[in-house]
Write a structure and sequence with these properties.
This protein has 399 residues and is mainly alpha-helical. The protein is built from 17 helices and 3 strands. The radius of gyration is 21 Å and the shape is globular.
């Protein structure tokens, strides 16, 4: 007998008479989830200070302008917030109708990376250089389109009241559509982004109420795929070195293990309260590579200490907690699945980034959401916040 994840089906029955219109009495501002918004904004602002500390003395990166990365991080945050506002204004239900177009556009963008338009940064051929110091990483936006396209398929018949759970055919179609962009991203190769996408797919399937056989099958396929990729030598040398350094932290501390070794030294030297902002010796001495992006958490560990780092974890926890509430309280499966995909994305990527800084996870080249420097990542996570806010705002009004 097929087993399924248990959900309250009555929540997803078609809405009757309750239309999500906003009135003066129940305005958009009143219905926004302010804890998740303020926490995300606080993370971005804290990130700007950490990025500034990590780059103000890096003349080879900032062209002699110590405020270069600070201003750009704040600009990225401002654009991200604007994208969030636009997403809320359009609404996740409106975007539901545009999913095929968004999906097609994301495929075109990641295919463009594999052409001469693509550029290699830190070993991954995952970028499109626009010019003027700006670049685009399409795989960040693929995370959103995978969530939306799977949610659209898995929830269509359930929200219409035709089914209690997604059928096997629908699940298969959703997995095929998710696998296509993931396969292209793997060719770059951008293994870190693929890892996040796999976790997103698992989260979406679990939230949709699909048969648990699909979840178990996907986990088994992932393990088999990892073994096959390793056996066939499909990983680049730098990726193999990262896993080797994770398996043996003492391996070549001045070579492949340098990043993680210096990261642990920086975080460990911070103690309880840290050395103070801009006073970290590892940071000012530029001992930690990629400290404004993948290893930005080391700045927090060294200069803000355990307390400051814990506050960042608290803010991330608030974002995830409020996202879980939004997923639970929505009256449609589509909204629940979209929120669940975002939760899986944020939770795993935060754990992987902080874990690789602490040496408990392999280095995967993933930014810390809202905190790390990077326009594509910042834009994507704020669009995700916009989707969460839209799901909350467009809940049916009660009498």
């Amino acid at each position: 007998m097929t087993t399924r994840t248990t959900f309250s089906v009555s929540r997803y029955a078609p809405e009757r008479g309750a239309v999500a219109r906003l009135t003066a009495r129940d305005s958009v501002l009143r219905r926004l989830d302010w804890p998740i918004l303020l926490s995300a904004l606080a993370l971005s602002l804290i990130g700007s200070l950490l990025v500034w500390s990590a780059t103000r003395g890096r003349t080879e990166l900032n062209n002699g302008d110590p405020y270069y990365f600070l201003f750009r991080h704040l600009l990225n945050t401002g654009i991200g917030v604007a994208l969030m506002i636009g997403t809320v204004w359009l609404g996740h239900r409106t975007l539901r109708g545009a999913v095929p177009v968004l999906y097609g556009l994301s495929i075109v963008l990641i295919l463009a990376v594999l052409t001469p338009l693509g550029a290699t940064i830190n070993g991954a051929h995952a970028w499109i250089v626009i010019g003027g110091g700006f670049s685009l990483q399409p795989s960040e936006f693929v995370k959103i389109t995978i969530i939306l396209v799977m949610a659209m398929l898995l929830a269509s018949k359930v929200d219409a009241g035709d089914q209690l759970h997604p059928d096997h055919g629908t699940v298969a179609k959703a997995l095929v559509l998710a696998a296509l962009p993931m396969g292209i991203v793997m060719l770059m190769p951008d293994l870190g982004s693929v890892m996040v996408m796999i976790v997103i797919v698992l989260g979406v399937l679990l939230a949709s109420g699909a048969s648990n056989r699909w979840v178990l099958g996907l986990i088994g396929s992932g393990i088999a795929g990892a073994v096959l990729v390793t056996t066939l030598g499909m990983l680049d040398e730098y990726q193999i070195n990262r896993f080797a350094a994770f398996a043996n932290p003492d391996l070549d501390p001045s070579g492949v293990g340098y990043n993680t070794n210096q990261a642990r030294i920086a975080i460990g030297s911070g103690g309880l309260y840290g050395a103070g902002l801009f006073n970290g010796h590892q940071t000012s001495g530029q001992f930690v590579p990629e400290q404004q992006t993948d290893f930005v958490f080391t700045v927090a560990g060294e200069e803000l200490g355990f307390v400051g780092s814990g506050f960042i974890l608290l803010l991330l926890g608030i974002v995830l907690w409020r996202a879980c509430r939004i997923a639970r309280e929505t009256t449609e499966l589509y909204g629940t699945v979209v929120a669940a995909g975002i939760i899986a994305w944020f939770a795993f990527q935060s754990f992987e980034n902080i874990g690789m800084n602490l040496g408990i996870m392999p280095v995967a080249g993933l930014p810390l959401p809202f905190v790390s420097y990077g326009g594509s990542s910042m834009f994507a996570v704020w669009v995700a916040i916009g989707l969460l806010q839209s799901i909350r705002v467009q809940r049916p009004m009660t009498a």
